[in-house]
Design a protein that fits this description.
The chain contains 18 helices and no strands. It is mainly alpha-helical.
């Protein structure tokens, strides 16, 4: 049948999505790599630069929520193509910005397109795989995000001598050149069958399930605590990615060396994500994430004391990336574990929103800390606090899941899964 025809293409499609997510990751972090040059050229104070970082992330959050809903109505593929086209054009236009307001507005619009790209590509990939392989496929695709920052940082270090405006033109052009790849992503017949299955479940239950269910049937504290954990983790991740290159320049490193800070941080994230996939089944995703980010807080502190030489700085950043960003890549698996299928999309959306809020506040907080004039050693000690808070949150969720009856055994949940209300 038609469903079988798609069985030969999933690996290719994951590769295509991986490439799309890579360019998304680089485009989102490009401002961090060229921040010293942009700040000098546009005369930006640290708080202005923090607002520019936050503008792109706020646009991404709004784009994900808005275009994600549109994709559920008109189809993922057209939203993916439109978002990619829009993001590419806005990235090119960033090269023409001559003021803080213009640059921040263009980064907001770029982020809007990139957020829509992610919202569309995730379900497209998920629908090609059976349930038992879906999480691995999505996680493998998302490794492209930090890898995009790695590759982009290397490219930036090599080409930064040509100026930051040329880099935005090049990045936007590459984004637009990926449109033919986006055309390979097609809505699947299997997804239509799955949609009919979901509609059948809705008819049996008799009502559409509300997001409020994320906080019922014993899930209140697990949902809130997990949300707090991802909020802290993304606040820290984007604070590090946004401000570390600029701090390196202030410490006397060349812009090319500063751009490599993001490379080693995100390369560590790739290694950590791949390594954590080997240990999740043995220790559980929450216990593993709690240990990784708690130990990672020591790595964050060490960055401030290792900045006297490039080699020691890169090593501290790599170790921090392995533990902190590597743990962050397991966030989708947390939603899968916490929520049954009927509310998994709502659960993932809620966690995504909490994380994006943290990613917006992170660069703003970094700007305030940077402007305060505190010693860099103290600055990185302060940055380690969110890692400790996230570690505590994930440890608490692990304890709640072990000490209380499984949410999956709740009578209402069981009845709903069987299609019979108690």
């Amino acid at each position: 049948m038609r469903v079988a025809a798609f069985s030969r293409t999933p690996t290719l499609l994951v590769l295509v999505a991986f490439i799309l997510v890579m360019i998304d990751g680089y485009d989102m972090f490009i401002v961090s790599f060229v921040a010293p040059l942009v700040a000098h050229d546009l005369h930006l104070a640290p708080d202005n630069l923090g607002a520019v970082f936050a503008a792109g992330l706020a646009g991404s959050m709004l784009g994900g929520l808005t275009l994600g809903a549109v994709a559920d109505r008109v189809g993922r593929r057209p939203v993916l193509i439109g978002a990619l086209l829009f993001a590419g054009i806005m990235t090119v236009l960033c090269s023409q910005a001559a003021s803080f307001r213009a640059f921040a507005a263009l980064r907001f619009l770029t982020g809007f397109g990139l957020g829509g790209l992610l919202a569309a590509v995730v379900p497209l990939i998920a629908e090609y795989f059976p349930a038992e392989r879906r999480n691995q496929a999505v996680t493998s695709m998302f490794i492209g995000y930090p890898l995009g920052a790695v590759v982009g940082g290397i490219v930036t270090a090599v080409l930064i001598a040509h100026g930051w405006r040329s880099l935005f033109v090049g990045t936007g052009t590459v984004t637009l050149l990926l449109l033919p790849l986006a055309l390979l992503m097609k809505e699947t017949f299997a997804s239509k069958l799955e949609k009919l299955d979901h509609e059948r479940e809705d008819r049996i239950i008799g009502t559409r399930l509300s997001i409020l269910e994320l906080f019922t049937e014993g899930r209140l504290w697990t949902t809130l605590t997990t949300s707090f954990g991802i909020f802290c983790l993304l606040l820290l991740t984007y604070l590090l990615n946004s401000w570390t290159p600029l701090i390196a320049v202030r410490l006397g490193f060349k812009p090319q060396t500063a751009a490599m800070c993001g490379v080693f941080l995100n390369l560590g994230g790739v290694v950590g994500a791949l390594s954590s996939m080997l240990w999740v089944r043995r220790f559980g995703v929450f216990k593993l994430a709690a240990v990784m980010v708690s130990v990672g807080s020591l790595g964050i502190v060490s960055i401030g004391f290792a900045a006297h030489a490039a080699a020691s700085l890169f090593l501290a950043l790599f170790i921090s990336g392995v533990l902190v960003i590597g743990a962050q890549q397991n966030s989708p698996a947390m939603s899968v574990q916490l929520y049954p299928r009927r509310m998994r999309a709502a659960g993932a959306g809620w966690q995504f929103a909490a994380g994006r809020l943290g990613s917006i506040l992170g660069p703003l907080i970094g700007g305030l800390l940077f402007s305060s004039g505190i010693a860099y050693e103290t600055l990185f000690v302060a940055m380690a606090v969110p890692a400790l808070l996230a570690g505590g949150a994930y440890a608490r969720v692990h304890y709640l899941l072990r000490s209380r009856p499984s949410i999956a055994s709740h009578p209402t949940t069981k009845a709903l899964e069987k299609g019979v209300l108690p």
